[in-house]
Amino acid sequence: MTAVARFDLKLNQEDKDILAQAAALMGTSMAGFVRAAAKEKARALLEHESRITLLPEDFRAFVASLDAAFTPNSALEDALESARRDVRRV
Asked: What does each of the 90 residues of the chain score in pLDDT, given as a tens digit?
């Protein structure tokens, strides 16, 4: 792997010792261990934060609203009419 960016990290001795022991157990370098652990944690956090969790009753209400017939309000009707007048298809 070719490094394309650098990231420096200052640790106290206790943290460095813990990381060194864990890296040795994994059979990798400290840099490799920290990189893999940080990437794993980052992916887990991003996946968690990109999900929307609903209670069952909220999910049922959401699905019902998607299934219901849509009736545009007057503001949307006005915007659609304006678009029909002003937008030309090529």
From this structure: 677 888 899 999 999 999 999 999 999 999 999 999 999 999 999 999 999 999 999 999 999 999 998 889 999 999 999 999 988 876
Side-chain half-sphere exposure of 66, counting CA atoms within 13 A: 6
* Angstrom distance (rounded) from CA 50 to CA 2: 30
Query: Per-domain residue ranges for the chain?
Result: 13-49, 56-86
- Asked if 60 and 53 touch (Cβ cutoff 8 Å), the reply is no
Q: CA gyration radius for the chain? A: 27
Helix (H, G, I), strand (E, B) or coil at 41: helix
Q: How far is CA 76 from the centre of its chain?
A: 31
| Integer Cα distance of 82 and 18 in angstroms | 65
Q: Which two tokens stand for residue 90?
A: 């090529």
